[in-house]
């Protein structure tokens, strides 16, 4: 399979393979969520299990009228109960994906992370992965972690790199190129993440991550611009040609996300991973396109059994 | 004075005021430095004190031949001695600005930070300030710290915000809008910089920073995009309209710098400040334009007596 090069191409892949995921939506009663649901129904890539609290049943019925065969309604008393029920639907295999509607992210995550009845396997690491289509880059750019893990430990780096690699391979990159980001090329104990990077590269060279190129520390420009690498006398399969950017902390990852979307004219899809099934948690300030492509990305990723 | 809105406008200001700074250059023997010197001579905004080690005297003579009245040559045995001599020229008032040529940044900084004979006042804080012209933003964007301070303490935040404000005011913003950046709006003791932000806002409200609007924590998109602020129900003179972005750590600041320059099609000027005079330290992977405008910015900033 050729690597996917745009977000809209993800839709074509789903359609050409007649993949139609079952998406459990918690509290689908805000305009953004409705937009995503209606567009996904029209493009025939998903069917929906709408889990609504008592107060908003009418919105759910309205959505169902658009496509009765592909919209199912479940009711729960409160948003928190709706979250628990939706998580249950994913656990029991009735849904493939969990998506957030009008519920506080922290409350949704409480249900997702519940020790006995949640979606995170024992010892698993929840992380965020984003996929960006940037006009000034020659392919899709995957990156973590812009939203969940504040200061990744070695173990957390290892886990979320595995998540990102799995997704990147599903989108057609057989041997992804992973850049471990810092503000320079220097390994320095004052910056503990650079020590983690040395260990991760060692593990990659031993095959622990499967087929992969991994390099760093390097800055974001060196990772994505071959000319910058040349000037610095750096050359590796990763320099100037990264598929996956690994950020040292959440502020750097979040800055990249926001700067790309604001000043790089990029479309960005994102989801939570490490869970039994992808969890779609659109950010309020994302564009409609970004919100929709986040669901599309989750549909393409599928659950852990795919 | 109307705020300056582009980097090239800085050149016009210097020319219209007939400001011609004296720039001491350490080891001006690489093509990038030569380019900057020749362009500055042609645009008549600077004269140069070239401090060269014994080996590269010929390059200096070649540069002098282009403009004998505005190029002066000083010799030192080694690059480290050249750095010390250039710093001395600034300390004694013979030069207004220090600029790096082909010398290791760490070696140059050793001379700059020398306790008795360096350029940092007792108790001063060295920091980096960058000024970006981004096609998708409506004015210049100032930010710190992308290059010097790894994890700013409250005292370091306070100092570099003062440096940035001084520069921002010199470029015509009488009441700059300062955004204190984080990945969300939440103050959280797990993120100590958000506690510093609370204190800084308090100090700003007491007038410690002079005429200023200061707000945060907020993310980069909220700081620069009014629509994102609206969606989140946030409104302040800073939201969507920031002049100065304060980053919580060097990786976030550096990521912003590199992402803007690579994917935001931005021109960025930068310099070290907090010293008796600006220090221009172009990064190897900066464009020729960025390197030149870094010198122009320093010329406009002038030394602490301006």
TrEMBL record, chains A, B:
A molecular function (GO) term: acyltransferase activity
Domain Phosphate acetyl/butaryl transferase: 81-298
Domain of life: Bacteria
InterPro entries in UniProt: P_Ac_Bu_trans, Phos_Acetyltrans/Butyryltrans, PTA_PTB
Pfam families given in the database record: PTA_PTB
Transmembrane segments: none
Keyword terms of this UniProt record: Acyltransferase, Transferase
Family to which the UniProt record says this protein belongs: Belongs to the phosphate acetyltransferase and butyryltransferase family.
Protein name per the record: Phosphate acyltransferase
């Amino acid at each position: 399979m050729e690597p996917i090069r745009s977000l809209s191409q993800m839709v074509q892949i789903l359609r050409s393979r007649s993949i139609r995921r079952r998406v459990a939506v918690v509290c689908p009663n805000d305009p953004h969520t409705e937009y995503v649901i209606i567009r996904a129904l029209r493009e025939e890539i998903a069917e929906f299990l709408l889990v609504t609290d008592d107060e908003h049943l009418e919105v759910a019925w309205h959505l169902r009228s658009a496509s009765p065969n592909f919209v199912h309604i479940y009711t729960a008393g409160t948003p928190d109960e709706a979250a628990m029920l939706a998580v249950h639907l994913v656990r029991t295999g009735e849904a493939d994906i969990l998506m957030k509607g009008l519920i506080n992210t922290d409350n949704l995550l409480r249900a997702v992370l519940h020790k006995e009845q949640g979606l995170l396997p024992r010892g698993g690491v929840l992380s965020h992965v984003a996929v960006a289509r940037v006009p000034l880059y020659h392919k899709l750019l995957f990156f973590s972690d812009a939203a969940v893990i504040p200061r990744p430990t070695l173990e957390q780096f290892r886990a979320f790199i595995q998540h990102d690699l799995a997704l990147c391979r599903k989108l057609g990159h057989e041997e992804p190129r992973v850049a471990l980001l810092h503000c320079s090329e220097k390994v320095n104990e004052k910056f503990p993440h650079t020590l983690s990077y040395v260990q991760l590269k060692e593990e990659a060279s031993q095959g622990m991550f499967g087929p992969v190129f991994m390099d760093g520390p390097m800055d974001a420009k060196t990772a994505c611009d071959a000319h910058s690498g040349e000037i610095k006398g750096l050359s590796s399969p990763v320099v100037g040609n990264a598929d996956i950017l690994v950020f040292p902390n959440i502020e750097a990852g979040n800055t990249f996300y926001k700067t790309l979307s604001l000043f790089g004219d990029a479309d960005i899809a994102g989801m939570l991973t490490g869970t039994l099934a992808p969890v779609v948690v659109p950010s309020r300030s994302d564009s409609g396109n970004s919100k929709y492509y986040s669901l599309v990305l989750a549909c393409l990723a599928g659950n852990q059994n795919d």
